[in-house]
Amino acid sequence: MMQNYKAILTREMSGPRPVVLSGPSGAGKSTLLKRLMKEYEGVFGFSVSHTTRNPRPGEEDGKDYHFVTREKMQEGIDKGEFIENAEFSGNMYGTSKSSIEDVQAQNLICILDVDIQGVKNIKKTDLNPIYISIQPPSMEILEKRLRDRQTESEDSLQKRLEAARIDMELSKEPGVFDIVIVNDDLEEAYEKLKSVLIEEIEKVQDAKK
Ligand SMILES: Nc1ncnc2c1ncn2[C@@H]1O[C@H](COP(=O)(O)OP(=O)(O)OP(=O)(O)O)[C@@H](O)[C@H]1O
Ligand SMILES: Nc1nc2c(ncn2[C@@H]2O[C@H](COP(=O)(O)O)[C@@H](O)[C@H]2O)c(=O)[nH]1
């Protein structure tokens, strides 16, 4: 009984469980999470990462990423401001502690979009998120999606495909992810994602009533 009470208290103090979305570049993470955040406005908050890559057309500083120089990013890492950071396709990426705290302070479900290195490093922290991997149906389809997106140079595209091969292998390892969703048909993948998160979503909605 006492233990139950303690568990409830801890949950209330720490808020809803965060969600880590991972998977190869081009698998559809941003597409799915933007849709989720639109349908469940006021339930999710995006953890805005830092990156040293250049913004793509339409991307906003402070909303999609905090776009920073290598020097600035390294300075933050050295000061211990990041819970994880990684080098991906020639650029630095990282999750600052404050990006998560900002979302959690609002009692929202914090969504993190990180690569597989991020997943491994977050597992060493006490964040305790739900780990979801979004996978493409095949390497061929992934390459087509990345090319059609027209955001990458040939060099960046090749680096991303190489990272994708590693990611696709690692995602098959038991225990790394709570669930692996193959994003073939977008509607089906989205429904699956919602079904995994519905319990957590309802908790946040109930708390607002
Ligand atoms: N099920 C799908 N069927 C067809 N195209 C899709 C599907 N899901 C996503 N796409 C398209 O594939 C491209 C890559 O998707 P998206 O940008 O969401 O990937 P991502 O995993 O967020 O990539 P990154 O990690 O590089 O940010 C986009 O142009 C998107 O519109
Ligand atoms: N380890 C981390 N990986 C991150 C973070 N933010 C994004 N990412 C991952 O980087 C790649 C490429 O992203 P893109 O926006 O340049 O296409 C992708 O796999 C993201 O999941 C982060 O903070 N830490």
Notes on the structure:
The two termini are 27 Å apart. The protein is built from eight helices and nine strands. It has helices at residues 2-14, 29-39, 70-78, 97-104, 116-122, 139-149, 154-170, 186-208, and strands at 19-22, 44-46, 49-51, 65-67, 82-88, 91-96, 109-113, 130-135, 179-182. It has a single domain, classed as Rossmann fold, CATH 3.40.50.300. It is an alpha/beta fold. The longest helix has 23 residues, at 186-208. It has a five-stranded parallel beta sheet, with helices on both faces. A four-stranded mixed beta sheet has the order 4-3-6-5. Mean pLDDT is 93; it is low at 1-13. 33% of the residues are buried. Bound molecules: adenosine-5'-triphosphate and ligand LQESDW3C. Adenosine-5'-triphosphate binds next to helix 2, helix 6 and helix 8. It catalyses: GMP + ATP = GDP + ADP. This is Guanylate kinase. Belongs to the guanylate kinase family.
Summed up, what is this model?
With 209 residues, the protein is α/β, with parallel strands linked by helices. Helices cover 47% and strands 20% of the residues.
Give the helix/strand layout.
Elements lengths: L1 H13 L4 E4 L6 H11 L4 E3 L2 E3 L13 E3 L2 H9 L3 E7 L2 E6 H8 L4 E5 L2 H7 L7 E6 L3 H11 L4 H17 L8 E4 L3 H23 L1
Parallel strand pairs: 1-7, 1-8, 2-7, 3-4, 8-9
Antiparallel strand pairs: 3-6, 5-6
The site of adenosine-5'-triphosphate has 13 residues, from helix 2, helix 6 and helix 8.
